[in-house]
Amino acid sequence: MPSYKKKNGDDHEPDCLKVMQASLERYLKSKAYPKSFIQDREFLNSRKALKGRARKLREQGKGKQPN
What we know:
mainly alpha; 0% strand; elongated
């Protein structure tokens, strides 16, 4: 099971998970990887896992707070 925590044990901000996903996508494209981490069906479960984790973190009060 992947870890969604920082090295010090704290949780990442919910939006940070999406930024890491986009960074991975850019890296793979730069290496001419033929699949899209963000769009292809093969990675649907990983996208759902990240989205679910971000939702749970927001429910815990992490991330951007409304004014």
